Amino acid sequence: MSIIRxxxxxxxxxxxxxxxxxxxxxxxxxxxxxxRQLLNLEKCTGCPVCSLVCPNQAIELVELDGxxxxxxxxxxxxxxxLCVEYCPRGALQMTHEAMITIMSTADAIxxxxxxxxxxx
Length: 120
Ligand code: SF4
Ligand code: SF4
What we know:
binds iron/sulfur cluster, three-stranded antiparallel β-sheet, alpha+beta, Alpha-Beta Plaits, 21% helix
């Protein structure tokens, strides 16, 4: 048996762990990562383009203060970003928010107000 192997094991005893103490520690966000969407209520005109292009029928237009805005069911969303790409007003953008914790299906439904909150 080579002496090199036991020596490398001893070295590992003093090395920094390869793993992170998540969630206290995490890796930096990857540029262009597609997390949940952010809606700009002021830019949105309520045209139905985002809901029409969504391949998963995850977007439904709902009423808020007398206007129509998108509501997204994140449980159906595959984060393809087509809704962002095709929005004629640039009212939708993908955020880096990936930690989406839900306790029920209803929690996955992001109404316009929830969708317009900045990413955590
Ligand atoms: S987010 Fe864009 S595509 Fe969707 S309803 Fe608003 S303006 Fe239209
Ligand atoms: S990211 Fe894709 S799947 Fe998700 S709501 Fe937008 S168009 Fe639909």
